[in-house]
Design a protein that fits this description.
393 residues; alpha+beta; 14-stranded antiparallel barrel; 8 helices; globular
């Protein structure tokens, strides 16, 4: 009966994977230019950008920005997280560009296991948490020489110097459930305010996301990890996100337009060999399809790959292709995690202090991520470099 229950869970997961398909409805309005929220389609995460801009299947400190469902699963293992603000060149191919894309995220949650302090394998667990994130597109100072004439950069004596930027405040609620398989669902409410010297546009929108993963070896194994010298992970996952659902309004002329609504559908496979809590080697493959669900019904095909060593160093690469936009970008990057370094140090005789300091060191993790896009002509993030420092506990 026990094995039948496990088989049932696996079959249920496969059925859910098959029936979860995106809605391909299209809106009928156009948003153009730098404004209008087009920058919300850019994955300003070095980890995701290094893997071809794949983000829907990533469970990390920036999940709240790209898949609120994955954020729910993240909360099953984390209580607090902070991804520090980063600054990415937007349109970096231009010598005169002063445009930057900045993001950060802060959140916390609690799970049933953390409250009950249960660690038995197969115990039901549920987690709930909240995150606040901000996305800022900073165009900097510009000179307005006429009603519709704006020149990038401050030019003395030629007109009014004003600042242009977009702020998008994001409020995410994530729910994660673990019972052999891990399931997450969430919603992010976004409020965009566009400033051109003063408030020029406002938008209320939301994202919805789901995430589902099946840790196959964990489900089929009878022995706890502590009784194995070497244990293995094999975890396929599925993700679906519909983002930027809403309209942007322009108070000056009482008009409104649709935002760049899109969907992301991702499938990933993660495999690893571990010794206790120390990860020896890991590999990850992600395939993601992003579709524009507004007047531009474009489709981007993305693939990403990752190889990790000792849970410390990760090398990543990928490709993003969009035939309509003429985009074919090869990407790469790397990541370094402190927690893997601590686990490796323990095996080499490093002593962790007891008490409160030991608890902090055993649970805290810092990661540094970097990604690079090639110089590939006229594309908003060609030749861009991404940096991010994150902390979780």
């Amino acid at each position: 009966m026990f094995y039948l229950n496990r088989i049932y869970l696996l079959i249920t997961g496969l059925v859910l994977f098959i029936i979860c398909t995106p809605n391909n409805s299209h809106s009928q309005a156009k948003v153009g230019g730098i404004g209008g929220g087009e920058h919300l389609r850019v994955v300003n995460s070095p980890k995701g950008s290094a893997m071809g801009q794949c983000a829907a299947n990533l469970v990390d400190a920036q999940s709240a920005l790209y898949n609120p469902g994955a954020y729910g699963v993240f909360l099953l293992n984390k209580t607090f997280h902070l991804s520090f603000p980063n600054k990415t060149d937007y349109f970096p191919y231009s010598d005169n560009s002063q445009i930057y894309l900045k993001t950060f995220s802060l959140g916390a949650g609690i799970s049933l296991k953390k409250i009950s302090k249960s660690s038995r394998k197969g115990d039901f667990d549920i987690a709930l948490g909240f995150a606040y994130s901000r996305i800022r597109l900073d165009i900097g100072e510009v000179t307005r020489t006429g009603f519709d004439i704006i020149v990038i950069g401050a030019i003395e004596g030629t007109g009014e110097t004003i600042a242009i930027y977009d702020n998008t405040d994001c409020y995410t609620i994530g729910l994660g459930i673990k019972y052999f398989a891990n399931v997450g669902a969430g919603i992010t409410f976004k409020r965009l305010t566009e400033f051109i010297g003063e408030v020029a546009a406002k938008a209320n929108m939301h994202d919805i996301g789901i995430y589902f993963e099946i840790p196959i070896f964990d489900i089929l194994s009878d022995k706890p990890e502590s009784q194995k010298k070497i244990n293995f992970d094999l975890t396929p996952s599925f993700a679906y996100v519909k983002a930027n659902i809403g309209k942007i309004t322009y108070p000056a002329n009482a008009s409104s337009q649709y935002l760049p609504k899109m969907s992301r559908v991702g499938f990933s496979v993660y495999a690893a060999a571990n010794s206790g809590k120390m990860r020896l080697i890991s590999v990850r493959w992600i395939n993601e399809t992003e579709k524009g669900l507004w007047v531009y019904s474009d489709e981007s095909k993305k693939n990403g790959y990752e190889v990790g060593v000792l849970g410390i160093f990760y090398y990543r690469w990928g490709n993003a292709k969009n035939d309509i936009a003429g985009i074919d970008q090869d990407t790469w990057g790397y990541g370094i995690e402190l927690r893997g370094l601590l686990y490796w140090g323990k095996t080499c005789g490093l002593r962790i202090p007891k008490g409160f300091a030991g608890k902090i060191l055993n649970n805290i993790d810092f990661s540094f991520e970097f990604a690079k896009f090639p110089d590939n002509g006229y594309y908003r993030i060609s030749n861009a470099k991404f940096y991010k420092l994150s902390m979780s506990f």
